[in-house]
Amino acid sequence: MTNGINKKYRYNPKEFLSEKELIKGIKLKNKNSVGQAITLIESNHPTHRKTADAILSQLKVSKNKSIRIGITGSPGVGKSSFIEAFGLLLCKKDYRVAVLTIDPSSGKSGGSILGDKTRMNELSKHTNAFIRPTPSKGTLGGVARNTKEAILICEAAGYDIIIVETVGVGQSETKINEMVDFFLLLMLSGAGDELQGIKRGIMELADCIAITKADSGNENQAKKARLTFKNAIHLFPANTNGWIPKVHICSSHQNKGIDAIWETIENHRRSNLENGWLGSNRAKQNIYWMHQRIEEHLKADFYENSVISKVIKNYETQVENGVISPFYAADKILNLKQ
To answer: Which of 68, 178, 277, 296 could bond to 241 as cystine, CB 3.0-4.6 Å?
Structure first.
């Protein structure tokens, strides 16, 4: 039966709009155009990448107009529930909100579930909201390789607030700090010793810590956790912009504390616009992503070189058989480019 169905089925993918049509659609704030542009950005196909680069070069975004917010936290902390409650609050305030969620890719199959959109059912239906799940494809740092470019597309489409939800795997998620203005860390109370989470790395990058799920009898534990984190914040080096991280407790299901977190984000933005940090920080971030793009292209050019590919296979065999060390082989291969 399934064979009969498979024979009748013909995969007929929808053709992409032209470069001009996509640019026009993005400027007109068309969600389908925004989604197609991000698909082109995520593609590894040379033609798609060329079109994506051309689109990005022609789109102009007002400097520092949007608010870029990074949200991370361990699995089970309630990131999707929080973002839906937070996003709905912003939409009701008449902000246009884009949510870029990063799902972990399987180390075996390379696939991702991409289920965040279904977990934000109410937000996904709101006319002011755009939600785009993206696979991490093995990229470290909690974000996908092209998240920065996706942010620029959303800003060009007139979204006021861009929320980036990271993979949520732990201390490695520091790359997110290179693309957002405000970094929100979600934590659970009563999930073991809270101080275990207070390590250099992701904790000291947070502009705000929110203790989630402060409901259903968990309110007192949440308050204790808040005090613990408040005390621990003073152990970290001072931020260059003078901002002192805040700690809140919240409940996404009861909509408690969500507005206080938004108020903190507004205060952070106001302060850093006045002292000039926001503009200078975004300028530094742009330089960082310029170097990232250079590294990506150099790596791609290296491995796509047919001569080098053959040499690599030869050295792989020798390393696998224990004839030479992997470090000696790497040095020999790298010398080929000199």
So the answer is: 277
